[in-house]
């Protein structure tokens, strides 16, 4: 591999232009601008005329992004990984506190802004694992302790769902490949973790069908048989919603299916270990789709 030299600095503060960064990492300026506009992997600052300027941290980040793309990782997936690596625990805690306070105040406009910034700055995986899931757990603990936290939890869940939909607008369009099918059990009312998984898969260019919450068993079975997915993930958050007969029926029909979520632990996955955790589910879904998750 040829090691490219550091670009010459444009001023005393060590800022580099788009052209200099493009030469240094071996990609075109058009690609750099696309990574900035689509995924938020961009410059540290802009000049009066909108010219992009990059610092040493941005150079390192873009080199990592370029290396992942050259290894075959989709640009959206690579961006999420690069952004998550750049975020410090202190930044995640600060974001969590801000989002928690906005949810407690039922400040929906503020939540929308905070969540859009979070997804753009952290990437979907780090935003969920390091910020949003901990805040939702915190609110659940308050509710169980007798505090009036239900309205805040409802507001935050709805705002996260809407933000995920906005965030995935620029994802690659569906291909003709067989999709991954994501569905909740019939009585499951907590689809957010599954929607996060759907968002990350779409960012990675993996075809996905997300049926959402409270899916009638016959609807799921007919849909799965009709579209022939590479994998069905059947989600359950609590033991009360895990539908073992449905899992067995899908398997009997020859549908590749796995139990996903903590609600399955008392019942068992039957067709393999229960998939619990975003990264575990991502690896399984990616492998079934013929991709390697980095």
Overall domain count = 3
Strand numbers in spatial order across the main sheet: 5-4-6-7
Structural class: alpha/beta
Element order: H for helix, E for strand:
EHHEEHHHHHHEHEHEHEH
Distance between the termini: 21 Å
- β-strand percent reads 5-15%
CATH topology of the largest domain: Rossmann fold
- What is the CA-based Rg, rounded? 21 Å
The helix content is: 40-55%
What's the number of extended β-strand segments? 7
- What CATH architecture label of the largest domain applies? 3-Layer(aba) Sandwich
Report the CATH superfamily of the largest domain: Cobalamin-binding domain
Low-confidence stretches: 8-13
General description of the model:
The chain is of the alpha/beta class and about 290 residues long. About 55% of the residues lie in helices and about 10% in strands. The chain has twelve helices and seven strands. It has helices at about 20-25, 30-40, 55-70, 75-85, 90-105, 110-120, 125-145, 150-165, 190-205, 215-225, 245-250, 280-290; strands at about 15, 45, 50-55, 180-185, 210, 230-235, 255-260. Strands 5-4-6-7 form a four-stranded parallel sheet, with helices on both faces. It is globular and about 60 Å long.
């Amino acid at each position: 591999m040829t090691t490219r030299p550091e670009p010459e600095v444009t001023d005393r503060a060590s800022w580099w232009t788009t052209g200099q960064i493009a030469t240094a990492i071996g990609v075109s300026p058009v690609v750099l601008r696309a990574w900035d506009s689509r995924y938020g992997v961009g410059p540290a600052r802009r000049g009066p005329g909108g010219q992009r300027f990059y610092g040493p941290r941005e150079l390192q980040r873009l080199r990592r992004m370029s290396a992942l793309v050259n290894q075959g990782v989709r640009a959206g997936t690579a961006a999420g990984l690069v952004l998550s690596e750049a975020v410090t625990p202190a930044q995640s805690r600060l974001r969590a506190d801000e989002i928690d306070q906005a949810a407690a105040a039922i400040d929906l406009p503020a939540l929308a802004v905070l969540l859009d910034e979070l997804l753009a700055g952290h990437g979907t995986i780090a935003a969920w694992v390091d910020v949003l899931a901990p805040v939702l757990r915190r609110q659940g603990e308050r509710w169980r302790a007798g505090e009036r936290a239900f309205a805040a939890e409802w507001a935050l869940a709805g705002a996260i769902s809407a933000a995920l939909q906005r965030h995935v607008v620029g994802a690659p369009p569906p291909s003709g490949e067989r999709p991954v099918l994501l569905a909740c059990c019939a009585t499951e009312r907590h689809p957010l973790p599954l929607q996060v998984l759907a968002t990350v898969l779409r960012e990675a260019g993996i075809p996905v069908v997300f049926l959402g919450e409270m899916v009638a068993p016959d609807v799921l079975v007919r849909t799965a048989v009709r579209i022939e997915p590479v994998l069905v993930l059947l989600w359950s958050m609590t033991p009360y919603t895990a539908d073992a007969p449905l899992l067995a029926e899908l398997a009997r029909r020859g549908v590749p299916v796995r139990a996903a979520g903590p609600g399955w632990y008392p019942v068992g996955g039957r067709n393999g270990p229960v998939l619990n955790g975003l990264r575990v589910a991502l690896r399984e879904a990616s492998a079934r789709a013929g991709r390697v998750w980095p």
